[in-house]
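Pair request: fold both.
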Amino acid sequence: MYSKAASGYLLSPPKVIEDKVLYPGVLLPPKKEITVMEAICHSPHKVDEEPQSRKAQLVSSVKSGLFILGTALVVFVAFRNTLTWYLQCFWGASGYFWQSQWEKIDQYFDNDEYNMNIWGTFYVNIGIYWGIGGLYTLVDLTGKPAFLLRYKIQDNAPYPVEHVKVIQVIKQALVNQFIFGIPVLICAYYLRNVIGYSIGPELPTFQWVLLELIVFVLVEEIAFYYSHRFLHHPHIYKYIHKQHHEWTAPIAISAIYCHPVEYVLSSVLPTILEFSLWAVTLQPVGYGLY
């Protein structure tokens, strides 16, 4: 009764369970053959293990997110008066400085919102990305100064980084920023006009800046997370997102080394979504952006 033909479900070479006592005085027949089908029939919970694991991970992530937001809210409510007072003092003391700098920027662009929105944003993006990223890349290319290498997250990364790979990153990043980034900025400008967004000569109040920062960060992080997760879908990953993961030990300027579709979808659009949702949500109820 323990032959291979007895079950009729032999899908692969059988596994053998050695002689052992299951209950006092009761032995398993020697070398009983267990087929794959029998193993599945006796362990039905194995089939649903992966979906349950994903569900548990999702529930855990939601709980962690709620805990962090709840803790931040409690801390803010408990210390809002003191914190707000100190920050208002700082904003008030330095408010003239920031307002005067903003007026200089406004004058530099001759009060032209089109140039300020598109080229002003583009210059800031280029300056910060290549200025800061370039300094870190010099360290990656030369391995100097040596004391900075101890702060490298992946301290086993080879030094210096291959020049050919760095040049490849620079080319792709510039293509993304110039060929695809500028048209998206132009489209975003006209979208701002449709939803009623405008840049005024006067900076907003401290409370409004704080509120905008909180909302913008939350919206951007959520949009980036789900767009990034979407790009990891098995049917999409190898065509688009795989390029970004060519760098297993990334460098600073490889942040936007990616397919143009990913650059627009996951890097640019989440930022545009911030003010779009903000304006669309507040304007119908009588609030302007500033």
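--- second member of the pair ---
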Amino acid sequence: MKKVFKIALRKKNTCVEFSFSKMARQWISFAIWLLLYVKVSLQDESCSSPTVTPNMYTTTDGMIVSDIAFIVELSVTCQNGAKDLSLYAVINDVTVPVVKSLDNNKYQFSWTRDPKNVQNGEQTLRVYDEEGFSVLRKVQRSGEDTSNLKPLFTVTINHPGTYQGPWVQSELVAVITALILWYLAYSTKMKIQL
């Protein structure tokens, strides 16, 4: 026995009829359950007890650049074997985009800062998974303190400082040396003439 499904269209009050056999309804039901299962299984897993291996680079020559670059590459391995994590990095209450490499457990993020605003020494970078980041955003929107939230893991970045050039420019040293030599030569000449 075939059941008839009627779908009423809003335009011109027309009605479209579909008829499916019992077997077709079973296949459609199976396909819907399969799609739901695939959707649930493709969602990100949460990472438990992550092992993080960081590799960092910071710009140290401030004479030739306008911004100091920070680049952090992480290799993340979860104890429960979770892969394809969605990670979000936060440093000084600024969210930094995290890019996942083609290798499932490597992530990279970078940002730049004005050399005047960069602190020398260690800075802590907090990394959140998708759940933790959504909680962080809710707390930020409500205006509460975010320091109580526990990130998935933290990475300590050491910036040794930025070289801004010598304290005294070489041109100034050359001019002062030339003036001293001129004075010594002139004073010696005056002593000889007397």
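Observation on the second member. The two ends are 133 Å apart (CA to CA).
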